[in-house]
Structures are given as C-alpha cells and as structure tokens.
Amino acid sequence: MSKEKILVTSALPYANGPVHLGHLSGAYLPADIYVRYQRLKGNDILFICGSDEHGVPITISADKEKVKPQVIIDRYHKMNKEAFEKFGMSFDIYSRTSLPIHHETAKEFFLEFYKRGILKEKKSLQFYDEKAKMFLPDRYVEGTCPNCGFEEARSDECENCGTLYEPSELKNPKSKITGETPVLKETSHWFFPLGDFQPQLEEYVMAMNEKYGWKENVLNYCQGWFKDGLQDRAITRDLDWGVPVPLESSKGKVIYVWFDAVLGYISAAKELSQKLSKENLWREYWQNQQTKYIAFIGKDNIVFHCIIFPAMLMAWNDGSKEKFILPQNVPANEFLNFEGKKFSKSRNWGIDVEDFLNLFPADPLRYTLAANLPETRDTDFYWKEFQSRNNSELADILGNFINRTFTFVQKHFDGKVPESGKLEKIDTDMVNLLAAYPAKISSLFENYKIKDGVGEIMNLARAGNKYFNDSEPWNTIKKDKEKCGTTLNICLNVIYTLAELFYPVIPFSSDKIFKMLNADKTNWDYCGEINLKPGHQLNRAEILFSKIEDEVIDKQMEKLGIPQTKAETKDSKNNDLVTIDEFMKIQLKVAEVIEVEKVEKSDKLLKLKLKLDNEERQVVAGIAKSYSPSDLLGKKVIIAANLKPAKLMGIESKGMVLAVETQDGSLNVLTANDNVRNGTRVK
Ligand SMILES: [Zn+2]
Fold first, then answer.
1. How far is the CA of 165 from the centre of ligand 1 (A)?
2. What is the pTM (predicted TM-score) of this model?
3. Strand, coil or helix: what is 351?
4. Helix (H, G, I), strand (E, B) or coil at 493
5. Mean pLDDT per 10-residue interval, the chain, length 683 residues
6. How far is ligand 1, taken at its centre, from the CA of residue 146, in Å?
C-alpha cells in the first residue's frame, strides 16, 4: 500500500485563557486520535497547531491587567502548550502567530492580494468611544446579536450563532472600555471580496462533499451562507496589536485577526521546516496536490475554514504558480457542555485541562471525551459519567481482562505466551472476530465516526472477557493444560490488538500494555492477526487504571454547587463502620496446617488440622478447588478463631480459614511468614 501524505490542522486556540474540556472535544482530541491512527497505518502525517496570539480579546485582557499583550500571550501560550502535552496531543509543531515568520507570511498574502488589485479600500462606519478617543473593534463593543438575540455578541460577530454582521446592525452596543454607548464614525479599511469567490466556493464545497462526504452540520452551515450571499469583508482594524498592514498609507492599522490566524497553519509548517533545516518541507504538504488536508475545528469556526480560508487560498492560487491545497474535509464538531450548561469562565462553570490533569491521568479523560464526542449534536461532560467510564469500563472491562490474563499466565505458564493447540469453535470465533477488527475500526475513524469506533474497541475487550469466562481456564488448567494454553494464547493476542486499536485513544495506557507484552506496535492493518508467538516472554503486569472513589467526584461536584444525591449512601456507609472494640471481638489468629485431607463426596471442602499456641483444632474450609492437600501442609494460615462451631457435611469445624478470590476466580488463602509463632493474634 502506498503511503498517503496527510496534513492535519487543529484550530489555533486563543492565547487569552486556558483551554478547557470543551475545546478538547471539538478540535483537539478527535484530531489526535485521527492522526495517531493514520501514523499506525504507516501514512505520512504533518500535524499542526499553535497559539492564535492576535485579536482584541488579548488586548482587552492586557488592558484589564495593566500589562503588555505580550505578557498575556506568553502566559497562555506556555500554559496551553503544556496542557496539550500532558493530555497527549501529538502535534508535530505547536507554533505561535506572534512569531516573525508568521507576520511575514500574513504580510505576503496581504501584499500579493493588494498588488493584484484584489483588495478594495472602503470607508465604513466603526464604533468609536468618544470618551476614550479610540475606535472600538470587535470585542471592544458588546451588544445584542441581531440574529439570535445573544447578549454578549461583539461588534461584528456573534459567537453564539456564528453570524457576521456590520457594526451598525448590533443592538444595544456598549463600550468595554468606558461602558458608554459608542458612536459610529467613518474610517477607511481594506476589504476582501468574498462575494467574488462565491461561485468557486460553492463548486468546491459541492465537489468535496460528493467525493468525501462532508458532515451534514458543516454542509448546512455553508449552504446557509451561500443562500444569504457572501459579502466583502474588512480585513484591517484600527488597533496597535497584530500584524501591521504592510502599506505606508495604512499606518496604525493591523490585519484583522481572522485573516492572519488561518494563515498560521502555513507559517507553523514553515517554522517546522526551519527547525528541522528542511527548507521545503512545508511545501511538500501545503503545495503538493497529492496531499490530503483535513481541518479539525469546532462548529463556531466553520465559516473561517470552509469559506474564508478556502477563498483566500483560491485567490492566491489564481495568480501564482505555487498552488496551495484546500481542505478536503472539515469534520467540525458540535459543542461539549459541562454538567448541562455551557462552559463559562466568568461564571466559573467548567474545568481547565491543566487543573483536570493535576487531579487525574490523561487517559481516563481522553477515553471519556472520545466515547462522548459531540460529532452530530451537543453533548455533556458529567463528573459521574467520567467516574463510571473509568471504573466500569477502563478498569472493570479492559483492565480486568488484561489483569486476569496476565495473572493466569504468570502463575501457570511462567509468564510466557502458551502454545496454541487445536482450535474449537469458541476459539475460531474469537480469532475471526479479532481479525476483522482493524478494518472495522478503520472505516469508522476514516469517516470521522470516532465515538462509534471507540465504543467498538471497548466491545472487543468485552468479547475478550466473555471468551475468558466461557473458556474457564481455571478448570481446563487442571484437566487439559493444552486447551488452557490455547485460551490464554488467544487472550494475549486479543490484548495485543486492544493495545494497538486503543493506542490513538489512550496512548499512555497502550504504551504500558505494550511494555507488559514485551512487544512493539505493528502496522494497523496487521494488528488483528496472531502477533505474539508461543514462548514469547512477557513482562510483569502493571496497574493500568485506578478506580476513582465517590468522595473524589463528590468534591468536584460540590465545587460546582451541584446538590449531592449520595447522602443516603454516605449514611449507610457510616452504618457499616465498626469501632475498634467491635473489631477486636473477632479473634484472628495465625495457625499452622499440620494435617489436610479431602472431605469425601465434596469437591469443595478440605478438612484441616491446625496448631495454634497450645491447642490443635479441626477446621473445614471450602478451598479444595484451588488447593490440593499437599499445597497447604506446613503453611501458616489466618483463621477467625472464636466463631461458633458449625458442622459442614457432618464434620465439625471450629473456626474459619481466611481467603480471597483472585481475578481468575480461584481462591488464595491468606498466610503469615514461617517465623510468626502459632496462635499469634492478628490485629
Ligand atoms: Zn447570534
């Protein structure tokens, strides 16, 4: 199979605040899963992101804190870059739009359009604060959206419904600087003639959709724009923070942030080329017609990636020999809400990625978000769901399957992959299911149905558990070791496949599993085959997922002021508590096993003679399935010594031997060291 060249971009986050879980679900986690999957397929990927460091929100934050904008962007660039790293985002580069290389790229596009006469200079009305004596671009004005009525809309764009409009259309405008109602004042700006590109854009969107099947939400959104008719858009602003307009006549103006930000994807690739000293690397992706370009974004960014950026690239390509590729697909996600409401920094609703990852590892978060991606509609993050995805799915299904298999193989097969004997139907069914899995998940991931893919991979872990149970290795190990070996051999290969299929989703845990298997990843297409050969030495098992206690989750919910529904359970928990006096009523003692015999007509019971300090006593224990008499002789076990005597199968038992059930369903008798004196009290 020939390698595909794939360029993947994730929307550039604003360096004006920390990224939160909603952002991750939109443009970042789906992209990272897609990229990691494509790398396992052996494809040639360039994965780009970086901070968007221009725009009015940054200058507003700087004004508020009485610092320079540079202080704000340095702070949040560093914070978000680190949060992404901790979350496991595998960007090839995380760049910044404040870098000179980006300023040069943005100016180059502007000048090229200017020279070719594409840009139009127009006088327009902008908000002006008479008290502060300055123009008020974008977010310096807040008002009510003329389209949806959202009350925190900015001067020319509504973040809630994504509508762009002229400042004069905004209702109830207020200056963010002085709180005054601003006036509209004439100023001169450069406009990009978006309308001129409408026929080309419509053709492009239609062609891409026909070939690659765009998402319905994206398509509908574009068609809505086309129906309204595309308008000229101002691409300059009266502001002193941003890329300066490279014209003498436009001193004091900067290029509007949306024009420069999308070009950040190109300048980031250029920065990587410089870093790697491969001058033309960026061209190999951006100007190679064989490259497939996928742009991951949230739905609030559709217009920029499906209309404005493509139009800019079309404008460039029309008059240049160096032709850029356009997005082949823009799988925009809907929004993730938080416990039923929108994330809101000002209302303290939500949690930042950095804070989250200080409390929990990245994989349970990646898994929870991936299993619930807002691919076709808005979804919610709930703390309780996070806990249950971690405890009941990652730990109880995936972790348990891996652990019980490893425990069994360590105990009975010296930690080596057992030989596989004759396959019965139950075995071939499992092997066939496994073989079909990589292609099944591929077709979901390739079509951006990542949520469904993740659900299906967990189903494979479920199937593994069921296969283990139905094969009963704890029985076959005694009666038919070869059959037991076959079961374990297949289970280990299922684990190998799970490690690879899950790698895009939970990379940190998958790496641990590969280490436990003492094996490396293979090409995705072959990971469903029998990759672990008999005799292959495994490493020791590690803990993959720790359970998250109710108290930990309750604390997070308390912070949000969500009423606790757990009060009852808490009370019943208190009722379960015993005092130290109550505990001491039960005399746990160390006893040496001096005689053992099977109880006739019982496959469960063993009759033990035990030696305490200065007495011997008889105890009947239900451990015959896990221990043969010779296993126990001479062991120092723990017994509950003052239980009321009972009769089992007619035999008197004075006390109870303590044992725990292991993951494979067998029993493990608790013992003390040989140097502990018989009859010693356990406390
Ligand atoms: Zn709106």
1. 10
2. 0.80
3. coil
4. helix
5. 90 95 96 98 98 92 94 97 98 98 98 97 90 86 94 88 88 92 94 97 98 95 95 91 95 92 98 97 97 96 96 97 97 94 85 94 98 94 96 97 96 97 97 98 97 98 97 96 97 98 98 98 97 97 94 91 55 63 88 91 89 90 88 92 86 91 82 89 88
6. 7
